[in-house]
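Researcher: Hi, I'm a grad student and pretty new to this. My advisor asked me to get structures for two proteins we've been looking at. I'm not sure of the right format, so I'll just paste the first sequence and hope you can take it from there.
Model: That works fine. Here's the first sequence with its structure tokens right after it:
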Amino acid sequence: MGTLKDLLTADLRAAMKARDELRTSTLRMALAAVGVAEVAGAAKRDLTDDEVLAVLAKEAKKRREAAMAYAEAGRGELAGKERAEGEILAGYLPAQLTDAELADLVAAALAAGGFAEMRQMGPAMRAAQAAVAGRAEGARVAAEVRRQLSG
């Protein structure tokens, strides 16, 4: 199929042909964010699929946070648009782990690293994040690590 960026570009073309304005604007925004990430640093480079996934996850998180802010401010229409954009982006992200799967992965990572105390939170989080590999939000991972380390 090619890279994830190629898939985004192909889906953008299809959305443009179908005159799907929401999907078109969302994919344009996602590709723009990928482009910004490609030129960040000393020289332009092509991102790997994992790096593109990280950019998409960051953009999806922005949409969730914006939707919550709009909803709290009583701006239901804008909140709905942000949620819809987030759902489109979520279609390109790996499936999120359930709470039970997350607990199992964190437990395995903590056991493998020999982490058992709260003062080992930093290294424990690095090991847990590596095990989870972007399939759960950092806040969920941190909460689970904290829960298991405290006891």
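Researcher: Oh nice, that was easy. Here's the second one.
Model: And its structure:
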Amino acid sequence: MVFLMAGGGTGGHVIPGIAVARELSARGHTPVFVGTARGLETRLVPAAGFALELIEIGSLQGQGRWHQFRTMMQMPGSVVRCLALARRHDAAAVFSMGGYAAGPVAVAAALRRLPLILMEPNAMPGLTNRYMARFSRKALLSFEDALAYFPVGNTELTGLPVRREFFHLPERKRGPIVNILVTGGSRGARTLNRAVSGLWPLLAGQPVRILLQAGADVPDIPGVTVVPFVDDMPAAFAEADLVICRAGAGAVAELAAAGKPSILVPYPYAADDHQARNGAALERTGAARMVLDGECTPERLRDEIAALLRPGKLEAMGAAARRFARPGAAARAADLLEECVGVLKQ
């Protein structure tokens, strides 16, 4: 059977979709992605070995009026294009990760009365998933905070697909030196780079070692190991006693799977401030500390790190993070898609 996979633009929308597509492919089905030419899907989806169909659609949130008007004008044509794709591929159902690229696909699914399964990675659901929830068979969530935005009885807490390696990292015993991994994602984060640049002199005498993934702009920071990109992130997590990072859904899911304590610095311009909502949800469990972007100074990071070096603190946070983990999200999504189209388990 063919399943249309909707959701593009950022890695947070594409990578979990690829995980579900791999699960479907292993079961003998054919996933076909639908995205735009400017999103990360144009690089990630073909590299994963899946077909990609392109539509023209822009985003609405956080955009100027002209951009929003142009997006609204693109919507009817994009929906017609998705209807044609559903017919041509004889799609059995649609899986949506949300985001602006998923909107026309989800609308086409509703018009064709195709089963629609949503996966919402954030504590504050995106506009597309909030709107399309009423037409979905099931919304798969990562945060209990998101339950209020979906119809009662139409949700399931599954978590977000995460690479298996994160779930199987060996338990790390804290040694005399505390290893701190700082990452702002594959492109780095200017706020984190600047804070770490001034942090090392303030940590004089503290038993810490810092690895910074800085992105393309690699600063020279005495006392800190700085790299543009970490090729093996699970291995870097395995060596880390503490992780300092943004609060995107993927990062939060990886921290939980690995059982790593963290200091989260939410990206302040995320749609609906969803990273702050993600960070607050993890902080409430005792697994993380949250520092707002505007407050992320070297002095604030020094104080946060010093507080976490108290005996037993990092270990307790790591255990709380592990309790937040939900393995098997990709398999559960594939199960529901099969159930929607009447595929019986053997």
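Researcher: Is there anything I should tell my advisor about the second?
Model: You could mention this: The chain is about 40% helix and 15% strand.
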